[in-house]
Amino acid sequence: MKGITIAMGKTLVELHEGEPKGKGSPLEYNLTLDGKELCTIHLNATAQPGCSISTGPHTEAAIWAGTDVFLVDKASGVVSEYQHGDYVQAIYALDGLWCLIGDSTVATVDLRASQEISQFQHDEIITSSRWAGAILRICDLQNRVISLELVNGCSYRRTSTD
């Protein structure tokens, strides 16, 4: 059985892949948090799963593949599901909210409430992203680097294009 293990601080997230159900079907994963098996989740079979762990006072883990996103609350063990409108490449924790980097969007989402707060729509495919303080830098297929400033903890203002 294939699996993925992600550790950050004192939090350990494990995804153990179940048996494939057939071509085109989502993959089934057994989700374990800190050694406790929580549930089975289904993720897009054509996408590589990813995981991001918040390190604030309220520890949570966001797990994604394709447009499927799951949020795991460490304290309660509650798992919630969110369907994003864009293929997710990366997720970053933002003080109780989450920054989802899609193929052409940057969105701030309250995953606990399954609600998008704000979205920046880019005019090209985003190939990579990284944070430098409160500035998110995204790179696109044209090798442009776009700097987005996080405003009021939830929205983005374009500050420059390199």
* Shape estimate: globular
Number of helices: 0
Task: From the alpha carbons, calculate the radius of gyration and give it in angstroms.
Answer: 16 Å
Rounded average pLDDT = 91
Mind describing the biggest β-sheet?
4 strands, antiparallel
What is the total tally of β strands? 16
Distance between the termini: 44 Å
What percentage of amino acids are in beta strands? over 45%
How helical, in percent, are the residues? Answer: under 10%
Order of helices and strands: EEEEEEEEEEEEEEEE
The assigned structural class equals mainly beta
Which residue ranges are poorly predicted, with pLDDT under 50 across at least 5 consecutive positions?
none
> Strand sequence of the main sheet, in spatial order?
1-2-3-4
Would you write up a description of this structure?
The protein is an all-beta fold. The chain has a domain at 3-83. It contains no helices and 16 strands. The strands form 4 sheets. It has a 4-stranded antiparallel beta sheet, with no helix packed on it. It has a 4-stranded antiparallel beta sheet with strand order 5-6-7-8, with no helix packed on it. The protein has a 4-stranded antiparallel beta sheet with strand order 9-10-11-12, with no helix packed on it. β14 (135-140) and β15 (145-151) form a beta hairpin. The protein is globular. The model has no long low-confidence stretch (mean pLDDT 91).
